[in-house]
Amino acid sequence: MEASNKVILYGDPLSQPTRAVQWVLILNKIEYEFKLVSIIKGEQRGEEYAKINPLQKLPAIVYKGQAYFESHTILRFLCYEFKLNSLYSPDDIQKRVKVDEYLDFHHLGLRKYASTKFFLTFAAPHLGIPVSQEHLKEADTYLPKALHQIETVFLKDKKFIAGNEVTIADFSCYNELNELLLIKFDFAPYKVITEWMKRMEQIEGYKESNAAFLKILETGKLEK
Predict the structure, then answer these.
(1) Cys-Cys crosslink for 151: which of 51, 118, 119, 192, Cβ 3.0 to 4.6 Å?
(2) 211 and 101 in one domain?
(3) The domain that contains 185 carries what CATH number?
(4) Keyword Transferase, does the record have it (predicted)?
């Protein structure tokens, strides 16, 4: 494994967690190299990538010869290693706990339903994969609850999830929600989220980290 001082990011622009990590790298001008691991081609299940991430999920990074995986772990690591204190405070325990509360909520609270809704409504039909109506119904039932919780708990009376400054929690959450734009999800009832998303889109690195996603949003096509 290459012991480079440059961050090597293994991922796919179609991966929401990959986009979150890439956005943080760009925003903080951290030198990195992007290595595409195509989800559509199933490259994350290959033997070579398994040497980087034995769980065979995206993203992963290699830095100074050490591999790291799980996006929230990667985001925390980048904050510690590169002293991105405003994104994940090493000193303010109360602020850090607020970030961790969201990160712990994220996978089963939001991602489980947002990702399922996106995949079954948009990706599966494009890729010729059968759609589970049972799983789609579950997503339709619980996604509104998740969005309500984000508005009334995590974003209540705040500009960002942990307060008035953006943190790694916001990057994780945003990239999970913006994929729903591809299925023309109606965010109109969620005014707090809508305004927060607009604020996120003004942050440096948004367009670069979401370039491939924005192209799909423009064309409506998912290339195999």
Answers:
(1) 192
(2) yes
(3) 1.20.1050.10
(4) yes
> Structure tokens of 132?
């589970």
Strands 66-69 and 7-11: unpaired
Give the CATH number of the domain where residue 77 resides: 3.40.30.10
Considering the chain, what is the average pLDDT of its residues?
Answer: 94
- Please tell me the number of Cα atoms within 13 Å of 144 on its side-chain side: 7
Among candidate residues 81, 110, 125, the one where a domain is terminated: 81
- 214 and 145 in a single domain? The answer is yes
Read off the amino acid at residue 41.
K
The model's pLDDT over 165-185, given as tens digits with 9 standing for 90+, comes to 999 999 999 999 999 999 999
Is the omega angle on the peptide bond into residue 59 within 30 degrees of 0, that is, cis? yes
What is the spatial distance between Cα 160 and Cα 140, in angstroms, rounded to a whole number? 26
Four-residue CA torsion sign, 128, 132, 133, 136: negative
Question: Model's pTM, two decimal places?
Answer: 0.94
